[in-house]
Design brief:
oxidoreductase activity, acting on the CH-OH group of donors, NAD or NADP as acceptor; EC 1.1.1.-; single chain; Rossmann fold
Amino acid sequence: MVGSKEKSKEKRDKRLQEISLLRTIPYSDHQRWWTSETVAVVTGANRGIGFEMVRQLAGHGLTVILTSRDENVGVEAAKILQEGGFNVDFHRLDILDSCSIQDFCKWIKEKYGFIDVLINNAGVNYNIGTNNSVEFSHMVISTNYYGTKNIINAMVPLMRHASSGARIVNVTSRLGRLKGRHSKLENEAVRAKLMDVESLTEETVDKTVSEFLIQVEEGTWESGGWPHSFTDYSVSKMAVNAYTRVLAKELSERAEGKKIYANCFCPGWVKTAMTGYAGNISAEDGADTGVWLALLPDQAITGKFFAERREINF
């Protein structure tokens, strides 16, 4: 077991070194579909992975809007980047508050007119280490799943029509995988429903999280086949993964020149407040795949799940 853990660490470290090298290679002119007029929004970006994605996108020459629920903290975070010469703006955004979302959309429309990239990073996790309480399940599902949907629904009408297509990137987790080494889902009925991408709908995903929350209320969730570690967080990310596939399918039906491409990625176990700084990856490396996805020159990639710049299975 120790040997396999060491091999896995070696493999991960080697891949992260490769990615660090790739990050130093500038995009060529024919790859750069964006300009300084290209507008990206990153939610929950006052620290950690979100802050780092803002920094990297701005470093590539985009105009980036850093958003945060806490105005004072967000203003300070944006100021750090502005003082570094980055083209970063700030606006308060609480993805659980419909009035906050409306205000944000109004401001975007008046100041920028449109956006080109939306990275949904805002999220919460209340379990650190080996704790696995479901006490805050409603808040976790509301923020990570419904909050993400709220801001996507509000932003899609403001996404610019262009031949390069607009992009939506959802920050998610391998903990939400339906199959694979990291999957702890034992509920075969849920797995089958969410794996069936042809008949998968938003309603199916909503019903799945509702079923989980009902079992939490009833105290029966432990026998429901849900993951037994980071349970509420894992279920919320499982829902975001499934919703990304539904969204990508819907958006792919748009006419040429109005396309929006939606993908999700796992940043890994990053040293941030969300992991109690117990992660094994830096925020810079954790942010990398999200930035890479947002800037992909081959815009036809949609409805996929990535980690360390590679496609992985849902």
